[in-house]
UniProtKB/TrEMBL annotation, chain B:
Entry protein name: Quinol:cytochrome c oxidoreductase membrane protein
Entry keyword annotation includes Transmembrane helix: yes
Keyword Transmembrane helix: yes
Residues passing through the membrane, by range: 54-73, 93-119
Protein keywords: Membrane, Transmembrane, Transmembrane helix
Top-level division of the source organism's lineage: Bacteria
InterPro entries per UniProt: ActD
A Pfam cross-reference name: ActD
Organism: Anaeromyxobacter dehalogenans (strain 2CP-C)
């Protein structure tokens, strides 16, 4: 194996390090990837679960206050009618988008390195969307009437206004949540069958047996499964772009200075991918260490993700520069003031944090050695998460504090319930993620087995015939 | 009365060759079982092209058309709403929901269609599961299953052994 891998490295300068360390056989691969599920509970996992469980209790308490005392427990006011609620919503949705990008878009582009991280990223999407989805509902004021947003034949004969971006949001988010779940589950079915067959207790066998619906690895099923999975990826790709575009419409189609701008859709989508990749990194670095996934999530994966973070960070920077340029070029005093206020106004520290975390920090990824340093990767990914939250806060709340009439200006200060909803949602997300890591296969086993076959095929050709054949082997698969 | 003959193979090439030989022999409904999609299985079993894309397309168009009609009926016709003095039926504003519903219908049709129609799931009991060793089909085993007339089962089993199967079992369907 080592000689073959080395040959690949010499043949293709782009293949700097392997996407799969070694060529373990199928049973060894299955055992190592199922160990977190079938093995004994790890102490570290339990400690984290209890810790984040406490945070989740804080979230539930904040939700309780919001629902049973009323929305007045938040720091929101007029003019700042949208603050932490919508900031958190956009932030979580953005995080979710990287999962779809990794699992769908990279699948269509046949990027081999996506294979081992896609399940992980999809789970992140699912939980991030669940967290995001709560905010628009609870910020309604009377959340128990949320179903008024759904078009149904009411006795009042009133329908939702489909010319507003808010009902678009309802459809976009619910479609996104549904499709993400179906795509994730479709990919899980073969691995649930593996779990059923490798199970050590009868309870596991029964539960995973029911969850896998009776999958028997039939070639007649694999044929349709593959096509269906690819089609789902094809559908998810434009979907993910449309969802964040629609989220940005919530702002862009209004008339507020600082919001009313055509660059929002592409700039929001780039920002979503940026923050999402950072979140995958933040979660993956500790998880691969704790669950010993280093042989399937290699330095190559982290390196590639760092490059994506750098690239999307530059796109986001371009968005910032363009916003400033248009604010000046438009000649609109109100528009210029909105941007001026971001830099020197009462929230200038948040703006400084946004620029430092999103523009300055990712630049370290130009240096290859730093893209391989796990500590640097982790630190920068956490900074980017903070920076993107700051960006959404600046766009949403800071813009609202200064509207057209100086008499109606007011600042915004979050209350403990606002903080509870923010940190509590992070904890709840962490709890869901920990449960996922313990009870479901976090690395797609069947896909890694397929990847191993492809790599072996490639090794074989590379060892025999050099560059042209190695590339040919890749093309032949396509 | 049908029986299932199962055989486990050590290599992909031997499995695919066995499938081709048995298919030429006739009289059996063949299937292959593997922990990952096998390349060349469709050709070896002589499967027709998958019709899933057609299902997805029809469902997607249905979703998009119903999405557009829903919006036209509700805000364009049943309850005309004047927003910014735009016409009640303003097509550009209807694009997002039309698109989303197209994607939603298509994805649901793929998922439900695959599971319920193409795979016939849920079906947690299947004759192949009667063989304990068949568990390896989702871990590292490569299996061939043949649904045959009960009288033909022994002949097919012998044939499978001749073709290089490591392990051969016969399961009567009534079991």
């Amino acid at each position: 194996m080592t000689t073959a891998t080395k040959t690949i490295e010499r043949v293709d300068p782009l293949e700097t390090s392997p996407v799969l360390v070694g060529r373990p056989d199928d049973r060894a691969l299955t055992d190592s990837l199922l160990e977190p599920v079938l093995g004994p509970t790890k102490k570290g996992w339990l400690v984290m679960l209890v810790l984040f469980g406490g945070g989740m209790a804080f979230w539930l308490l904040s939700l309780y206050m919001t629902l049973f005392v009323g929305i007045g427990v938040w720091g929101n006011n007029i003019p700042v009618a949208w603050a932490y609620d919508i900031t958190n919503f956009v932030w979580w949705i953005g995080i979710g988008h990287a999962g779809t990008l990794i699992s769908a878009i990279l699948l269509l582009f046949q990027q081999k390195w996506r294979t081992s991280i896609n399940r992980f990223a999809e789970a992140m999407t699912l939980f991030a969307v669940a967290m995001a989805g709560a905010y628009p509902v609870i910020h309604l004021g009377r959340p128990w009437l949320f179903w008024w947003l759904i078009p149904y034949p009411a006795t009042t004969q009133i329908w939702p206004n489909f010319k507003s971006a808010l009902p678009w949001d309802v459809f976009a988010i619910s479609t996104y949540a549904t499709v993400s779940f179906l795509f994730w589950y479709l990919g899980l079915i073969p691995d649930l069958a593996t779990l059923r067959d490798a199970a050590r207790t009868r309870a596991q066998r029964v539960v995973y047996g029911i969850m896998s619906f009776g999958w028997r690895g039939s070639a007649r099923h694999w044929q349709h499964w593959r096509i269906g999975y690819l089609l789902m990826a094809g559908l998810s790709t434009p979907l993910v772009v449309s969802v964040h575009t629609i989220v940005s419409f919530d702002f862009a189609i209004s008339q507020l200075p600082g919001w009313h701008t055509t660059i929002f859709p592409p700039y929001f989508v780039a920002g979503a991918i940026f923050s999402g990749f950072a979140m995958v990194m933040t979660l993956m670095i500790p998880a691969r260490k704790v669950f010993k996934f280093e042989h399937v999530v290699t330095a190559r994966h982290l390196d590639n993700m760092a490059k994506v973070i750098l690239a999307t960070g530059l796109m986001v920077t371009y968005g910032y520069v363009m916003e400033w340029f248009i604010a000046w070029y438009s000649g609109s005093e109100a528009e210029w003031f909105a941007f001026y206020n971001r830099v020197v106004g009462d929230y200038k520290l948040v703006y400084a944090m946004q620029i430092f975390c999103n523009v300055v920090a990712p630049q370290v990824f130009w240096v290859p050695a730093l893209r391989r340093n796990v500590m640097v990767l982790f630190l920068v990914s956490v900074l980017v998460n903070f920076g993107m939250w700051a960006e959404r806060f600046v766009i949403i709340a800071v813009t609202l504090t200064r509207d057209f009439i100086p008499g109606s200006w007011a600042n915004y200060t979050p209350t403990w319930v606002d903080w509870g909803l923010l940190f509590g949602s992070m904890s709840t997300f962490a709890v869901l993620f920990l449960l996922f890591l313990r009870f479901l296969p976090a690395i797609p086993i069947s896909e890694v087995k397929e990847l191993r076959r492809e790599l072996e095929h490639q090794d074989h050709h590379a060892a025999g015939g050099g560059q042209a054949v190695a590339r040919g082997a890749h093309a032949e698969r396509a | 009365m049908k029986s299932y003959v199962l055989g486990e193979f050590g290599a992909e090439a031997a499995l695919l060759d066995a499938a081709r030989t048995l298919r030429a022999r006739g009289g059996a409904t063949l299937d292959l079982h593997s922990p990952y999609p096998l390349h060349g299985a469709e050709e070896a079993l002589g499967l027709r092209k998958s019709t899933v894309p057609l299902v997805a397309l029809v469902a997607g168009i249905t979703g998009a058309v119903s999405g557009y009609l829903l919006q036209w009926y509700t805000v364009g016709y049943a309850w005309p709403l004047n927003v910014g003095n735009r016409p009640p039926h303003s097509a550009p504003a209807f694009i997002p929901v039309t698109f989303e519903l197209g994607v939603l219908f298509s994805a649901l049709a793929i998922f439900v269609g695959l599971l319920a129609v193409y795979f016939g799931f849920p079906r947690v009991h299947h004759p192949v599961f009667e063989v304990e060793a068949f568990r390896s089909a989702s871990i590292d085993g490569l299996w061939l299953s043949a649904e045959v007339e009960a009288g033909d089962a022994d002949a097919v089993a012998a044939e499978l052994r001749r073709l290089g199967a490591r392990l051969v079992s016969v399961v009567p369907e009534g079991k």
